[in-house]
Amino acid sequence: MTNSGQNRAPKKDKLQKIGGPASLATLSAHLGLSAAAISRVLNGVPAAKSIPKATQERIFAAAKEFNYRPNVLARSLRRGHSMNIGVLVPEVSEGYATLVLSGLEQGLLQAGYCYFLLSHHHRAELIASSQWMLAERSVDGMVAIDTVLSEASHLPTVTVSCPAEQQGVTNIVLNHKRAAELAIEHLVGLGHRTIAVIKGQQFSSDTTPRWQAIRQATAKAGIKLDAKLVAQLEGDAPTHEPGYFATQWLLASNTPFTALFAFNDVSAIGAVRALREAGLRVPQDVSVVGFDDVQSAAFQNPALTTVRQPLRTMGMLAAESLVRQIKSPSDAVQAKRLVVDPELVVRESTCAPPEPKRR
After folding, report:
1. Domains observed in the chain
2. pLDDT (tens digit, 9 = 90+) per residue, 169-198?
3. Which of 21, 118, 210, 299 could form a disulfide with 67 if both were Cys (CB 3.0 to 4.6 A apart)?
4. Nearest to 322 by CA among 164, 158, 149
5. 221-253 pLDDT, tens per residue?
């Protein structure tokens, strides 16, 4: 005769008194299932699909009841991976890096990875030391956003908007040529002929390729850029002030213009403030086009016309590419370049230029 008491599942309060949260072995004894089957379900591996849904629900319910927590350290040692990623960004603020991070985070979490985030503020010594700091923490790979790496990394690496291509590094970049064409064709189509441009800071990875693309697009449209109507953002403050001061410099040249194409939305918002302080209306006197399509762009007054970068998509691509390299190192042998296309979002900050007599 079978002793039913010997097969009875251990009670939750007794488990907690003996050893705290339950182990995988305890769940196995409680459910009458193999530890391997329970592990497959809790880790969401593809092989778990063969386990009946009712059984999976029992496993999740038991894990919750007994406060089961997987031993991440032991699992990472078995796999040979820390399941951690290092991420380098210039700074964390509204704009480019934050939107890329949102997509990157989503992609990494879906793949079961966490990440360490380091901001270097475009200081070369911080970029170099950050690479060492991340390597010392045994990260499985690295993502660098708008960052020129000081040296080649031995880790699987993905860069976002980096002009310098390195062996074995996947670089995700915007189609700057198309982006410039979208903005310039929009302004020219409205009738603008005198267009001012605000270039990015010298340290930004996007400054040179975007400026070259703007020059090509204006030449193609038959528009001559006046050197007095080309300003450059100064300083590394991730605020509206650089765009505000750059626009004041443009206005001080006393060279009339009917449209302004800013390096990014953050600087475009500063530009609108400077134009209004000078007694100019946006867009009736000066149309303004931004770049990036940050979350607040649609809520400005007027709502900002901008070239939208698919920043969240770029972050997702970075996560997918890096995880693929970690799982299959052979994918990182050759450098790859993934180019994404922009989109023009027309809102309220652009219109036809004023009549000459009113100007």
Report:
1. 8-70 (1.10.260), 81-174+311-340 (3.40.50.2300), 176-309 (3.40.50.2300)
2. 889 999 999 999 999 999 999 999 999 999
3. 21
4. 158
5. 999 999 999 999 998 777 899 999 999 999 999
